[in-house]
Amino acid sequence: MLFGVMVALGFVVFERWRRGAFLLGLVALGAAVLRAVLTDERARLLAVRTKRFDVLFSAVVGAVILWLATSVDALGTG
């Protein structure tokens, strides 16, 4: 999970923001899936609030980031 965030930020730093945003969205969706299937004891840092809230929030954030990464046109291309 942390590796995915670091790779996504690396893409953003090297001006590949769409790839970085797409990967960050996938990581957020992966966090939602992990939070849904893991017990509270095993989830550790993924457990912030109730399981339902954590899964819903991570899934919505991941979906919005994926939607933005795929719907926004690349800057400078016509």
Q: Which helices and strands occur, and which strands form pairs?
A:
Elements: H1 2-13, H2 17-37, H3 40-43, H4 51-71
Helix pairs in contact: 1-2, 2-4
Q: Would you mind describing this structure in some detail?
A:
The structure is a single chain. The protein has one domain. It has helices spanning 2-13, 17-37, 40-43, 51-71. The radius of gyration is 14 Å and the shape is elongated. The protein is built from four helices and no strands. The mean pLDDT is 90. The longest helix is centred in the middle third of the chain and has 21 residues, at 17-37. It has 78 residues and is an all-alpha fold. Helix 1 runs antiparallel to helix 2 and helix 2 (17-37) packs antiparallel against helix 4.
Observed structural traits:
74% helix, mainly alpha, 4 helices, elongated
Number of continuous helical runs: 4
Spans of at least 5 consecutive residues whose pLDDT stays below 50 are none
Radius of gyration: 14 Å
Structural class: mainly alpha
Indicate the proportion of strand residues.
Answer: under 5%
CA-based shape: elongated
Report the average pLDDT across residues.
90
Helix content: over 70%
Report the strand count: 0
Concise overview:
74% of the residues lie in helices and 0% in strands.
